[in-house]
Amino acid sequence: xxxxxxxxxxxxxxxxxxxxxxxxxxxxxxxxxxxxxxxxxxxxxxxxxxxxxxxxxxxxxxxxxxxxxxxxxxxxxxxxxxxxxxxxxxxxxxxxxxxxxxxxxxxxxxxxxxxxxxxxxxxxxxxxxxxxxxxxxxxxxxxxxxxxxxxxxxxxxxxxxxxxxxxxxxxxxxxxxxxxxxxxxxxxxxxxxxxxxxxxxxxxxxxxxxxxxxxxxxxxxxxxxxxxxxxxxxxxxxxxxxxxxxxxxxxxxxxxxxxxxxxxxxxxxxxxxxxxxxxxxxxxxxxxxxxxxxxxxxxxxxxxxxxxxxxx
Length: 312
Fold this sequence. Notes:
Strand order of the largest sheet: 1-2-3-4-5-6
Order of helices and strands: HHHHEEEEEHEHHHEHHEHEEE
Largest sheet: 6 strands, mixed
Shape: elongated
Strand content: 15-25%
Structural class: alpha+beta
Number of strands: 11
Radius of gyration: 23 Å
């Protein structure tokens, strides 16, 4: 994950420089901040309970609550000190965290005037997020117009944000990457097991986070819906599908040339026997990824699946 090196204000602001340096020290690649934002989206959707997976399904109050939840998740992740009137104290400086789904639209209360704001934005649909710093002076903010005297950045302010990470990658939400009619079809069954099977058929060669499985299945034992003994692995095997877990099957994913899942992710792949020595060795035979127009002539081979783990 890359970050912008142009993080220092045109006008010297030692406090901003020190806070930026500390943020980069704590998280050189932005991986931890990306995790905070991904976790906040997943918590707000609450997919296992609600089946929701996108921003426009949220109520207005939930959208408003996103920023508060992100601040709490960041506090848990980085253990920042609490500020006086602001959210945090970082490197001894007051810093207030602000989220807006739309870049530039952060709401700035009077207590942040004169202080540093850590401004964050992102798009789950585009799988990106950004984080920057700016000192909230009178010259970078609009005149307060609403009842509680909150303000927003003006054009100069929006141009003056010192981005530490800009459009950095967010772990993808596969339900936002698939066509909407495909996702509607996945959710069309009243049975969680059927919805899970449809998900892994539709999302072939795509990363599927375990939270997505929970959202689709809407069941407490959602990871069991993936496994053999009636789960998607056994139901989809006759159609040639393997469902690989990042906990146990990373090497298989590499050998088959599909995206390699992390520990809490899956990837489904349709396979056929390999006539040459390419692909993955499974059960004494070579298998390769099937082409989209290729019919699976044999069931997918069985892969190892530890029985004593929650995830497989």
